[in-house]
């Protein structure tokens, strides 16, 4: 009886021990299993002094990128005011490729029948390019086509020209409103006329002197006064010229000082000269050489218009030579009188 009780107790204790060990084994196995699943935490890195980058997701982009809409047709461009960028042409082209900037169609082109800088579109066809983005005025004077960036005009106002003056000035106003005009008594050039005796004056400030420009004197203003007496229309025309601007007159030298008008026009950087006279006055050999040299070296074209309708006169031979040497033209025709 005693043996049985001890045997029970011993078996119960043994079972309890086995249960305890089994529980410990299960706990240990579970811990190992958890450690194998959970990733190990890496060692802490050094302190980062930069701000953390945003973890927000990037914006969504469309499947197809749409290019800027740059119309090929530029007919709707408003070029009433010419626009220039001040940039070289290669930079302008680059700008067009990257945004909606559009180059006016009138930049750097000829301006037919209009004042310089008007922005009028150019006609189709050839012709030399103007320097940079400058405009070239193209028009006609007495049916002669002229293209010029800056036109200079020499008008003989002596008695033989009086009946043609209104017609001549009207021709200029049609297409060359920016032309520089020189009013000259006669068309001669003499070595005896010293430059110190001649002045180039602004016609807007012209005030005839009763003594120096009297009826018995031979000056440009005296010739203009005589023309004004012949017709109220001529007087009105000269009055308008005084308000026009860019009108000058040669004072002194009688009818042999046209060379100083030439010199003054060349200093104003004209590229074309239209000389309106009858070429009855003589031109010295020295001045012929000087004028030819100066106009050719500056590449100035000279158009000769003999309003008498006759192809002869003391200065006509030189005038013809001057026009031919400068790639100009000789016009021998009497305009309509007014």
What are the defining features of this structure?
3-stranded mixed beta sheet, 7-stranded mixed beta sheet, alpha/beta, disordered N terminus, 338 residues
- Looking across the biggest beta sheet, what order are the strands in? 6-7-5-4-8-9-10
Query: Radius of gyration over alpha carbons?
Result: 47 Å
Strand content: 5-15%
Largest sheet: 7 strands, mixed
Task: Decide which structural class fits the backbone.
Answer: alpha/beta
Pattern of helices and strands: HHEEEEHEEHHEHEHEHE
> What overall geometry do the principal axes of the alpha carbons give?
rod-shaped
Rounded mean pLDDT is 75
- What are the segments in which pLDDT stays under 50 over at least 5 consecutive residues? 1-9, 43-133
Oligomer: single chain
Counted by DSSP, the helix tally is 8
Helical amount: 25-40%
Q: Could you give the count of β-strands? A: 10
Spatial gap, N to C terminus: 167 Å
Outline the structure in words:
- The protein is an alpha/beta fold and 338 residues long.
- The protein contains 8 helices and 10 strands.
- The strands form 2 sheets. A 7-stranded mixed sheet has the order 6-7-5-4-8-9-10, with helices on both faces. The protein has a 3-stranded mixed sheet with strand order 1-2-3.
- Helix 4 (220-230) packs across helix 5 and helix 6 runs parallel beside helix 7 (285-297).
- The radius of gyration is 47 Å and the shape is rod-shaped.
